[in-house]
Amino acid sequence: MKRSLAAGLVLALFPAVVTADEVSDTLQSALQAYEDGDIKYALEELDYAKQLLKQIQSTALTDFLPEAPEGWSREIDTETAALLGFGGTGAAAQATYSNGDEQFTIMFLADNPMIMSMGAMIANAGAMGAKVVRVGRQKFMVQDNELTGLVDNRILVKADGADPDIMLKVLETVDYRALSRYAE
Questions:
Q1: Beta carbons within 8 Å of 58's beta carbon, 6+ residues apart
Q2: Is the separation of the CB atoms in 88 and 55 below 8 Å?
């Protein structure tokens, strides 16, 4: 009974894991530790599997970062993204865009508890005196050289460091409909 309950729990929590890889190996290790009665190690393995899945999630989020416009370069910042998504509180992706004279960053932060508090602020940006612009169906709050938007009430999109018109042109290339379905 223990084994089938634990196996069912693992499969229910991680239905996308279907191949033999580090995630599935770690989950198997957690299951074996559970069966052996080593709950502490089983929990450690489950935590590690969760970290691995968050890495996969952040990598998938990185795919939505827009390409650099002509005359600009893009450098994906994997270290900052790992720190932003650290602790199992969401996934993050960030890139720096540069043309030699100017640079700016675009960051996506998904499924993080702090995003919920940002939603009301962005929705009421106009009432707070901030400028609001649209990129397709997405609203962005403009403050100084920073653009902040919220996709599907769970993915923060932030661009900062350059003239807002330059960053808006790059943000216009993001597929927000696909981004809203990220990690579903």
A1: 81, 82, 85, 91, 92, 93
A2: no
What is the secondary structure of 106-144 as a DSSP string? EEEEES-HHHHHHHHHHHTTTTTT-EEEEETTEEEEEET
Please report the domains of the chain, with CATH numbers, ordered by start residue.
Answer: 2-60 (no CATH), 64-180 (3.40.1000)
Q: How many Cα atoms within 13 Å fall on the side-chain side of residue 171? A: 33
Report the distance separating Cα 27 and Cα 45, nearest Å. 7
pLDDT in tens, the chain (184 residues): 343 434 443 434 443 433 348 989 999 999 999 999 999 999 999 989 888 887 777 678 889 999 999 999 999 987 765 565 455 567 889 999 999 999 999 999 888 777 777 777 777 777 777 888 999 889 899 988 899 999 988 899 999 999 999 999 999 999 999 998 886 5
Report yes or no on whether pTM surpasses 0.85: no
> DSSP character for 154?
T
Reading the block at residue 105, the tokens are: 């960053």
Starting at the edge strand found earlier in the chain, the sheet holding 73-76 runs 73-76, 91-98, 103-110, 155-160, 146-151, 138-143, 131-135
Can you tell me the distance from the alpha carbon of 100 to that of 102, in angstroms, rounded to the nearest whole number? 6
